[in-house]
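input
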Amino acid sequence: MNHCNKSPFISFLGQIINRGSMFIRKSDIRPFLESLSASNDVYVPSGISFEKLAPGVEISLDSKTRFSAKKLFIPPSEELFGFKKGGLRYDIKAPKAVLFGARPCDLNAIKYLDMSLGENAYYMKKRRNTILIGIQCSRPGLFNNCYCHYTNTLFADNYDVLLMEQGDGFLADAGTEAGRRLMSRKFFSSNGDAGRALDELKRRFPAGDAKALSEISPKAIKELARDCYSCTACTVACPTCQSFIVDDALNTDLESGKRMRVWDSCQLQSYTRVAGNVVFRPTREQRVRQRIMCKFRYSLGRDGMMSCTGCGRCIDVCTKGIDIFKVFR
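output
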C-alpha cells in the first residue's frame, strides 16, 4: 500500500467526494468560525501558535505559526489512565474540534501522524473528532525557512476544506462530505472554481523526487552537531516528532496514582538510557544524526513519506540558527 496517496482517516470524516467549489470573504472568516465554536473547540493560527478561538484571540492568515498544531492530538503532557488498588480508570478526552488555517506542511504532518499513530487510541479519538480546514500556500518558500519544495509537501490531500486566497476572500474546495456540509453554511457563495485553481497551481509547481534527498552528507552532520546545544527546541516545534516518556505518579496513599505520557526528545542523552545506565546514543553527533536520518531517510523508506514536511520551524526556533537542510547542499 502506498501510504502517500490517501490518509487512512478519510473514512472517519467522509469519503473523498466530487469537488464542491465555493467562495468565502475574508471578512466572513471569523463569523464563520464563531458559528462553529458553538458545538466545537475551534483552533486558529494566532501569533506563534494555534490557539482556541475566543474573544481577543486574533486570527493570523498571512503568516506561519512558530509552533505546529501537534499539541491538539499529542498533548505535551497527557494522563493515559488512573489506577488504584483493584482497578484502572480510563478517560480519553477528545471534544469535537475544528483546526483552521493549517498550511499544507501541517496537513501533511497530520497525515504522517495518521500513519505512525493510527493504532494509538489516544491519538485516534482526537483525530477522528477533528475537522481540518487548510489554507493553500500559493508558491514554494512562501514564508521564511519553508522547504516544502524539497519535501514535496506544497500540496495535501487529507483536508475537509481547503481555502485558496483570491482577491478579498478564499476559494473553498471540499475534500470530504463533512467539508461539503461546512460549505453549505450561509457564509459561502458559489463563485469561482477552486478545483481548477488548485489544478493550475499543481501544474505550475510539479512535485519533485523526494528520494533524491536520501543522499546526506556526513560532513554536514558533524558540522550541525558541533553547533547544536541539545536544547530540544527543534523537536518541540516539529509537527511530526513524537518522542515521549511514560511515567507513573504514585499518590501518598501508595495505592493509587496515574500514568502520564510526556513529550521527550531524541536530542537528549537520557532518551536512550536503559536499565544498567546504558545510553545507546551518548554523543551529540549520534543524536543529531538520528534526527536527520529519521526525518529524511528512515521515514521515507518505512512509510513512503518523509517525516519532515519542510515547514522550517526547527530553523525558526533554533537559538544557534542551525539549518537542517544544509545536509543536502
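quick obs: The chain has two domains: 10-74+86-210, 212-328.
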